[in-house]
From TrEMBL:
Domain Fumarylacetoacetase N-terminal: 29-119
Name this protein carries in UniProt: fumarylacetoacetase
MF (Gene Ontology): fumarylacetoacetase activity; metal ion binding
Annotated gene: fahA
Binding of Mg(2+), residues: D232, K252, T256
KW Cell membrane (keyword) present: no
Lineage of the organism: Bacteria, Pseudomonadati, Pseudomonadota, Alphaproteobacteria, Acetobacterales
Length: 425
């Protein structure tokens, strides 16, 4: 479990000037981890600081960082060492970058010149359904008297998704082909007519447990390496047709976009808040005093759209969703604990999606399927959208905020929808 320490001090400043700018996503109180490359050099681990990246491989070679795991081309080895290792690394990096330390500008790489990669090879990917408001809104269409799945109030429902199609922010998504049934009962196969986004939180797993060894609520918080943004691209017409027998399949496996920077659980300690009240109370295996008092996270999350016409006109992205992660019915710790209840061996580098982070406010509908319940959204330039169209870019942002703490950002998770390919002859 994360503890507040000197790395969270609101008065702490960095010798990297851009890290001290008001409103920056990456002040010295953040220090998120990622994997980047530059021209002529392969992927390596880094820390975001202001508009720069601290090259951890170079810092280790200079004898300034002790853990050799940071010299690997991914964060997988560090994740495997567990939360104690990431906490120790955070303390070292904070001291290295703090005002008063000897500046080492040769260890910095401008973000503008770097290419970001997936933080690690995604071992497994499971996607949850943890928002009461998301489930209730869409469930009313299916069954007005019983909009929630029977198990929703008892456990965090999830399904195993496709790890191989997880992609880093910035990679485009190709409009997929699929099969679905029209309202008149006729069958159709072709490019989807109902492409959607889902604004979610990514939860990255630290450490391993042996197959058959349960994960408990006492250990679950320490299995969370960190958090990011996740777009669970959804093919709604295909999804509706395939869902009733076994759940999502081709409606979800086309692509999943994740933000490149992992905000460590240690960085988010000042933003822990009480978990949402559950009715009925969770069974004991999904309950703990820590979760009730600290299981939620105060992170504001937004989803915006930038259409080709808006881009040509120089318009700013239009915010479709403005929501709060703290309102989720199930916390990240309960997701981890429930996932490992049966002894499932959660592995370092596993990825969990929180499910759509929808809130009770109209502005907090976190996908077009929800927004469209009251009609297509009308953009400031007069365009309207029921579903994502070719060339549209979806942009997620997140920001943790709390009284007395320096707010920290998550960076961006972006993706453009490209046209479908021609179906092979």
């Amino acid at each position: 479990m994360a503890q507040r320490d000197a790395t969270h001090d609101p008065a702490r400043r960095s010798w990297v000037a851009s890290a001290n700018a008001p409103g920056t996503d990456f002040p010295i109180q953040n220090l998120p981890l990622g994997v980047f490359s530059t021209h002529g050099a392969g992927p390596r681990c880094g820390v975001a600081i202001g508009d720069q990246i601290l090259d951890l491989t170079a810092a280790h070679a200079a004898g300034l960082i002790g853990n050799a795991a940071v010299a690997e081309p991914s964060l997988g080895a560090l994740m495997g060492q567990g939360r104690a290792a990431s906490a120790a690394l955070r303390a070292e990096v904070s001291a290295l970058l703090s005002e008063g330390a000897t500046p080492r500008p040769e260890l910095l790489v401008p973000m503008a010149t770097a290419r970001m990669h997936l933080p690690t090879t995604v071992r497994n990917f499971s996607d949850f359904m943890a928002s009461y408001d998301h489930c209730a809104r869409l469930g009313v269409k299916r069954d007005p008297k019983n909009p929630l799945p029977p198990a929703f109030r008892q456990l965090p429902v999830a399904y195993h998704s496709r790890a191989s199609s997880v992609r880093v922010s910035g990679e485009s998504v190709i409009r997929p082909h699929g099969q679905w049934q029209h309202q008149d009962g006729s069958m159709h196969f072709g490019p989807t007519e109902a492409m959607d986004y889902e604004l979610e939180m990514a939860v990255w797993i630290a450490g391993d447990n042996a197959l058959g060894e349960p994960v408990t609520m006492a250990s679950a918080p320490d299995r969370i390496f960190g958090y990011g943004l996740l777009n669970d691209w959804s093919v709604r017409d295909v999804q509706r047709w395939e869902m009733p027998p076994l759940g999502p399949f081709l409606g979800k496996s086309v692509s999943t976009s994740v933000s490149p920077w992992i905000i460590t659980a240690e960085a988010l300690a000042p933003f822990e808040v009480p978990a949402a009240v559950q009715d009925p109370p969770a069974l004991p295996y999904l309950d703990s005093a820590w979760n009730r008092s600290h299981g939620g996270l105060a992170v504001r999350m937004t989803a915006a759209i930038l259409t080709p016409r808006m881009r040509a006109e120089g318009a700013a992205p239009f915010i479709l969703t403005d929501t709060q992660f703290a309102a989720m019915y199930w916390t990240a710790a309960t997701m981890v604990a429930h996932h490992g209840t049966n002894g499932c061996n959660l592995l370092a580098g596993d990825l969990l999606g929180s499910g759509t982070v929808s809130g009770s406010e109209e502005t907090a509908r976190a996908c077009l399927a929800e927004i469209g319940l009251t009609g297509p959204v009308v953009l400031p330039n007069g365009e309207s959208r029921k579903w994502i169209q070719d060339g549209d870019e979806i942009i997620f942002r997140g920001r943790a905020e709390a009284p007395g703490a320096v707010s920290i950002g998550f960076g961006e998770c972006r993706g453009v929808l490209d046209p479908a390919i021609a179906w092979p002859a």
